[in-house]
Amino acid sequence: MEFIANNMAPIMFAGLICFLLIGFPVAFSLGACGLFFAVVGIELGVLPEALMQALPLRIYGIMQNETLLAIPFFTLMGLILERSGMAEDLLDTVGQLFGPIRGGVAIAVILVGAMLAATTGVVAASVISMGLISLPIMLRYGYDRRIASGVIAASGTLAQIIPPSLVLIVLADQLGRSVGDLYKGAFVPGFMLVGMYMVLIFALAIFKPAMVPALPPEARSLKEKDGSSGLPSLLALTVLCVGVSLFAAHHMETIHTWFTGETVEKVATDETIVFAMCFGVALAFVAASINRITRMGLLSHVAEKVTFVLIPPLLLIFLVLGTIFLGIATPTEGGAMGAMGAIILALLRKRLDYKLLRQALVGTTKLSCFVLFILIGATVFGLTFQGVDGPLWVEHLLAGLPGGQLGFLIVVNIMVFVLAFFLDFFELSFIVVPLLAPVADKLGIDLVWFGVLLAVNMQTSFMHPPFGFALFFLRSVAPEKEYTDKVTKKRIAPVTTSQIYMGAIPFLCIQLLMVGLIIAFPGIVSSGLDEKQNYDLDKVREQMEADMPAPIDFENPTLEGGAPDAGAAPAAPAEDDPMKAMEDAMKNEQPK
User: Fold this and answer.
1) Using CA atoms, how far apart are residues 158 and 163, in angstroms rounded to an integer?
2) What residues have CB less than 8 Å from 263, skipping those under 6 apart?
3) Which of 3-7, 180-184, 227-231 has the highest mean pLDDT?
4) How many CB atoms sit inside 10 A of residue 582's CB?
5) Counting beta carbons within 10 angstroms of the beta carbon of residue 4, is it exposed (0 to 12), middle (13 to 18) or buried (19 or more)?
6) Coil, helix or strand at residue 530
7) What pTM did the predictor assign?
8) Cα 227 to Cα 367: distance, rounded to the nearest angstrom
9) How far apart are CA 516 and CA 514, in angstroms?
10) Mean pLDDT over all residues of the chain?
């Protein structure tokens, strides 16, 4: 019993691992393990009984947490957009736009995956939508099954790192940092991943062109009535909009100064990108609208169609991320506006009915309850674990690693990568992150940067063979048996599970490379954050003292005019000053 009492923390952690390995639900494993070891600790005299009285207050605190309210909002937005037809229109238009080049459909999947990630934040919605729409097209025209599967799964997991990401909301809550700061820090790494995925496809198009063929001419439906491509007009509009965006980005400080009325010397990178994009998108929308209303023929039909297909998701991106980055709305308020925007978009497309709304609400309720139960279980476990000095044990275990900060980061990322084989990001966030955050803070690691690093690493939990959830989602919509294609009338071979697993490995390596780049170049994350204001406390104190009114001289009181009050009683001598007498008495009573 003495051994158990002295080693309660490691035994408790090992007990949780055993619960999880036997397949018991995570939320109930956490709660049961916490309550069991609480009883054992109380019986052994390790824990005071009064500690458990804090449990109801902690659970009430979870339900009062406004940050977590963003999760159901973003989930509802994603589920409605999944059924509103936006993903289908995007994939069809962007796929046709890039289809004539090798790997064009895969590039379209990556770009659409990034747009869906920036609007929905839900991995399941992105993977299932793109699997149902783009996978049959890729199989129809000869794409390698491994590349087709990998690019869909990897593009869907972009919703894990590109804001508004659910994992970033949970990590912000567990790390005690602002959701907006984590969104800003993850902005650049998320789109760097998009670029790295596209580089892989371009490399395959050059060195292995048979794996990523172009769409045949008969499959290209996006063209003008006279048969021309209509691309010169689209290219001219794109160049004009990009030029306007770059001009706005270059003069962002001037624009902010004019808009706010105060001198702005520097604007954060994320705000610059979002604000500059708004100028370009607004110009494209105005030009396309004038072209459609006046029928002047300034733009081709292709340019007009592409513009109106891209405007809704870009509008939602600004409605959610733009308002958060610019400080107009909190993440919770941004999620609420995004959900309302998704509902309005579905109504305009005449896709919203009672059945769709009911399905979306049921799905949102299930996911929200899932998160809440895991968080309650983690709270029960965490309270007991803290009572038996578990954080101190973890700190001694990790803080003494050789290599200081770098050694800690390497070990932690390897551990998270291995645990991601068996746990999803919610479970990792609620179980592992509360143990790692205090150690990282004591080592001097910025917790916002640390949270983004963990988010990129946790993204691999969706791509790990054989337990990656993105692979499961894709498996559920990929053809398991040979079938006849509706367009070509050819027999199409099925997609095997091993092909899905093999296709995930290259993109998994890219995600791990991104983890290494963030560790090697911290500015990838910190460049998107607002600069910390450094204050000279001595100057602040001096300014406060200068602003304070002059003290009243009680020995020589004066009137407002400054002359002595003739009617006042003579001031008491310094020896009879009651304040001074009190101070002398207190000094005499102090122990020597």
Assistant:
1) 9
2) 257
3) 180-184
4) 10
5) middle
6) coil
7) 0.78
8) 48
9) 5
10) 80
